[in-house]
Amino acid sequence: MNLHEYQARELLKAAGVPMFDGDVASTPDEAATIAKRLGGKVVVKAQVHTGGRGKAGGVKLAATPDEAREHASRILGMTIKDLVVQKVLVVPAADIATEAYVGLIMDRATQRPVFMVSAAGGVDIEEVAATAPEKITRLAVDPVYGLLPHQALSLAFTLYSDIKQVRTTARIMEQLYDVFVSNGASLAEINPLVTTPEGSVVALDAKVSIDDNELDRRPDLAALRDESAEEPSEVMARHAGITFIKLDGNVGCVVNGAGLAMATMDLVKYYGGEPANFLDIGGSSNPEKVVNALRIITSDSAVKAILFNIFGGITRTDDVANGIVAATREFKVNVPIVIRLTGTNEKEAFRILEGVGMTALSDMDDAVRRVVALAKEAA
Ligand code: GDP
Ligand code: MN
CA-CA distance, 299 to 276, in Å (whole number)? Predict the structure, then answer.
């Protein structure tokens, strides 16, 4: 789950990371009121779940409350990478001498939290990673020991030579690590961490993603979810108890089990298609889940054909067949559906589908080849 910047910065501030106090606004007038209260120059920042806001015109300096109002009215409602801005953060503007990047991610390869630190921070860290990876220092932290003081210091020394800035920054690394671990984050990032002309170190941006598996035991974090800022199909899927991730292709996939779902996506690609989603209806059988899965997939206009790939074990294939029939009665599915079923109660499933004029296949390769061809035809 991604947090908004204004939420992430509360976690960082609570841990002691130096940041300016600001506030969020949903209207231009609110933005002006906050700017007036803060006094002096402010920055108006779009609150959306994506980076690159600066480049998209979603971060603007304002010298007066009136200017803050103007910027807010332009930024509110603006679309950044398909996301509509509904809130802006208003914070005091900093004078910037240098911009650094400090990030912490859960790294699957090392199975540890890994710090990534670069003096070349600011808006283009992806570019730095692609073209000058040597400018990024990495450090894997042993979760048993946590971040040790000498590690924090040596990371900080890669950014600054002034000992006061190094000490402050080492403490910020420890605070960031603390935020990461204590909130079950998969990512915690400050970009930019700036120095001012007077020499102080301040975090100007904050990004935190919480591992979804943490949310059941942390209602305080779960309450931070902003569904209006998320992909609508993913919100619908979560409510229906379906694991769903939207992708860019045109072959909709309904599969039971994450492993089979991934194998199915691989096979779709192998036969020259592109999956439109990852979708796992789960291990238990429940016709309602199938109805919801079809509703979610058909709400994506990019989908040109749909593949069911069901391996019946605990999942009863007749329940899935009943779900497909129920769905096509409840709403119109305008794209072809290819169904592959095998396993528990498959005879019954085939009979149910034949009863409404649908045919199912037993062979996975056959089904995938067919759905890829149908999607290509329609595209
Ligand atoms: P992002 O582009 O979505 O990561 O948004 P950021 O919050 O990182 O802002 C992008 C850029 O705007 C920063 O790298 C800074 O160069 C600039 N910026 C942000 N806040 C301030 C500020 O308080 N003062 C000044 N002068 N520039 C700022
Ligand atoms: Mn940033």
Answer: 11
- What amino acid occupies position 103? G
326 CB neighbour count, 10 Å cutoff: 14
Q: Does residue 283 carry a pLDDT above 80? A: no
pTM above 0.85, yes or no: no
Domains annotated on the chain, with CATH? 21-92 (3.30.1490.20), 98-222 (3.30.470.20), 231-378 (3.40.50.261)
Residue 28, both tokens: 């231009």
pLDDT at 82: 79
**Which residues, in sequence order, are CB contacts of 144 under 8 Å at separation 6+?**
none
Residues known to be catalytic: 101, 189
- CA torsion sign, 358 to 364 to 369 to 374? positive
Copy the structure tokens of residue 157.
């020394």
With b for 16 or more beta-carbon neighbours within 10 A and e for fewer, the 188-201 pattern comes to: bbbbbbbbeeeeeb
Dist CA 207 CA 3 (whole Å)? 7
Spell out which residues line ligand 1, taking CB within 6 angstroms: 43, 45, 51-54, 59, 61, 93-94, 96, 99, 122-123, 191-192, 204-205
What angle is formed at CA 363 by the lines to CA 360 and CA 364, rounded to 5 degrees?
A: 100
Instruction: Tell me the pLDDT tens digit for each residue of 163-183.
Output: 999 999 999 999 999 999 999
- Shortest-distance ligand to the CA of residue 57: 1
> From ligand 1's centre to the CA of 54, what distance in Å?
6
Pocket test for ligand 1, best of 43, 55, 83 (most atoms within 8 A of CB): 43
